[in-house]
């Protein structure tokens, strides 16, 4: 007669494994080896409840250490692991394998519109330059206050949505206009300008509007909603761009 401990062990051993075989199809690029990118398949055993980032970790740590990608916090806060997964911009750390049909190959490639440096890593300098160009900081005049600059809940709510940006570039690199012309400021820069343009404490809204009134500013937007669909933080990016356009039109009146 089996003891309770033996019965418990037997039941545990007979439980089905949660792991499945998943194929990761990754677009690889190494400028030291070739000028052309190539697709490479990796088959791994993984729990479908894990994230795409976990799969990439398993490949890098256990299969091919040369695989190159960015990641930091792994919790959807830093925004560093934005990539195209099955043709859509997503954060690898927030995308569960079970949610993207693991029965078919999971395609992973670098985000578009920015120069690929290696594998899934792109040159983010143009993206951050556009961000810096819109003056993403509070501008005030007068003496330094002796206490914090107070603001009503209503005034704060006016720009609350655009404070959520984590600078992952998922919105900007999903924009067809940005793909074809890297001079366009892009959705992320406009979102961060919006955050201060509509801040009641700020005094440089007019200056930012003039910057975005440039030929590479908000008027390049074609309202395709790709940016809104791509945002992992749920920001209504297209709405914010439209509000900046409206502010430019109405400021003269």
UniProtKB/TrEMBL annotation:
Pathway terms, separated by semicolons: Carbohydrate metabolism; tricarboxylic acid cycle
Ranges of residues in domain 2Fe-2S ferredoxin-type: 20-114
Swiss-Prot/TrEMBL keywords: 2Fe-2S, 3Fe-4S, 4Fe-4S, Iron, Iron-sulfur, Metal-binding, Oxidoreductase, Tricarboxylic acid cycle
Cofactor: [4Fe-4S] cluster; [2Fe-2S] cluster; [3Fe-4S] cluster
Cofactor annotation comment: Binds 1 [4Fe-4S] cluster. Binds 1 [2Fe-2S] cluster.
Highest taxon listed in the record's lineage: Bacteria
Enzyme class: oxidoreductase
Protein EC: 1.3.5.1
Catalytic activities: a menaquinone + succinate = a menaquinol + fumarate
Domain 4Fe-4S ferredoxin-type: 155-177
InterPro entries cross-referenced by the UniProt entry: 2Fe-2S_ferredoxin-like_sf, 2Fe-2S_ferredoxin-type, 4Fe4S_Fe-S-bd, 4Fe4S_Fe_S_CS, Beta-grasp_dom_sf, Helical_ferredxn, SDH/FRD_Iron-Sulfur, Succ_DH/fum_Rdtase_Fe-S
Record-stated family: Belongs to the succinate dehydrogenase/fumarate reductase iron-sulfur protein family.
Record's protein name: Fumarate reductase iron-sulfur subunit
Species of the source: Streptomyces pyxinae
Taxonomic placement: Bacteria, Bacillati, Actinomycetota, Actinomycetes, Kitasatosporales
């Amino acid at each position: 007669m089996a003891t309770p401990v033996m019965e418990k062990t037997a039941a545990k051993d007979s439980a089905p494994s949660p792991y499945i075989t998943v194929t990761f199809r990754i677009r690889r690029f190494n400028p030291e080896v070739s000028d052309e990118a190539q697709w490479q398949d990796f088959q791994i055993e993984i729990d479908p409840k894990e994230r795409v980032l976990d799969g990439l970790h398993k490949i890098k740590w256990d299969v091919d250490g040369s695989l190159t990608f960015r990641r930091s916090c792994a919790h959807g806060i830093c925004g560093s692991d934005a990539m195209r997964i099955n043709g859509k911009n997503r954060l690898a750390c927030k995308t569960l394998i079970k949610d993207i049909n693991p029965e078919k190959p999971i395609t992973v490639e670098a985000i578009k519109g920015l120069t690929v440096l290696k594998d899934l890593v792109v040159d983010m300098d143009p993206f951050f330059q556009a961000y810096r160009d819109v003056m993403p900081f509070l501008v005030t005049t007068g003496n330094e206050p002796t206490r914090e600059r107070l603001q009503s809940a209503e005034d704060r709510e006016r720009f609350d949505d655009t404070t959520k940006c984590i600078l992952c570039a998922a919105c900007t690199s999903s924009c067809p206009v940005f793909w074809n012309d890297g001079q366009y400021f892009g959705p992320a820069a406009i979102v961060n300008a919006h955050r201060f343009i509509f801040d009641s404490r700020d005094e440089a809204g007019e200056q930012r509007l003039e910057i975005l009134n440039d030929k590479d500013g908000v008027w390049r937007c074609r309202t395709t909603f790709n940016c809104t669909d791509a945002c992992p933080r749920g920001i209504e990016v297209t709405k914010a761009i439209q509000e900046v356009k409206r502010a430019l039109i109405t400021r003269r009146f």
